[in-house]
Design goal:
The protein is α+β, with helices and mostly antiparallel strands. Helix content is about 35%, strand content about 30%.
Length: about 240
């Protein structure tokens, strides 16, 4: 557990928890009884962890993180300049910061966006500037992080959740049966030894990328809108490879 903690520590090197975590880990090592000998160099040759550093330029990420941590604790609104990658657009927004979340190699800010009049998720590495307005806000009593994320397939938040059905062939089904992908997940066994996985998901962008990663071994059955998107994506890929 200590070895894992030390590797996990690398995720937080851009945060204000850097020195505190290092001190805590050092103290835990110091508390080990004399009967336990732990040579980290030797152990690291036997055990390794694929812990990626947070996405983004380190200095800017660290500076933004520090500012957000302060305003979250003070409950003050921030003005951010934010780059939206899929639209290739930069906008200025006023946001009430609720929570910071680390997910799959990136830090995210969850907060109420005054411009959109709803709670949104912002990738911290895409925040160009962040300034405290000094205006305080009250965290809504009915806000629950667990409820907010319950229908997400990762970090993406969509509108109303829809039922997603994905069929996996007999080959891929061997692996998929072992996975817990979502709290709403249900598995239907098929006569050909394939399976259908059913989930209630809001925000289908991550689901689309996930399904495409399985190639011919996965097929979206529902919703039809997602099935259409994936078909169009595959047709575009086919055109690219026809150039060979």
């Amino acid at each position: 557990a200590l070895i894992f903690s030390q590797h996990l520590f690398s995720q937080y090197k851009v945060t204000s928890f850097d020195s505190q975590l290092k001190t805590a880990i050092d103290k835990l090592y110091g508390m080990l009884p004399d009967t336990i000998s732990l040579d980290l160099n030797s152990v690291s040759e036997l055990i390794s962890f694929d812990v990626k550093r947070p996405r983004g330029e380190e200095d800017r990420l660290s500076n933004t993180y520090e500012k957000l941590l302060q305003v979250i604790s003070k409950r003050t609104t921030v003005t951010i300049e934010y780059y939206t990658a899929y639209r290739d657009e930069t906008t200025v927004r006023n946001v009430d910061p609720y929570h910071l979340r680390y997910h799959h190699g990136a830090w995210y800010l969850i907060g109420y966006c005054h411009n959109r009049d709803c709670v949104r998720v912002f990738a911290i590495d895409r925040i160009i500037s962040c300034n405290d307005t000094g205006y305080t806000f009250d965290l809504p009593k009915d806000f629950s992080l667990e409820a907010f994320l319950q229908h997400s397939f990762g970090i993406e938040i969509g509108s109303e959740p829809v039922e997603v059905k994905v069929r996996f062939d007999s080959y891929q089904a061997r692996f998929m049966r072992e996975m817990l992908l979502h709290p709403s997940q249900e598995i239907e066994e098929l006569d050909d030894e394939g399976i259908i996985i059913k989930m209630k998901i809001g925000g289908l962008g991550e689901v689309k990328r996930w399904v495409l990663s399985f190639g011919r071994h996965a097929e979206v059955l529902e919703p039809q809108s997602l099935r259409k998107e994936i078909r169009e994506e595959l047709e575009a890929c086919q055109k690219q490879y026809e150039k060979l």
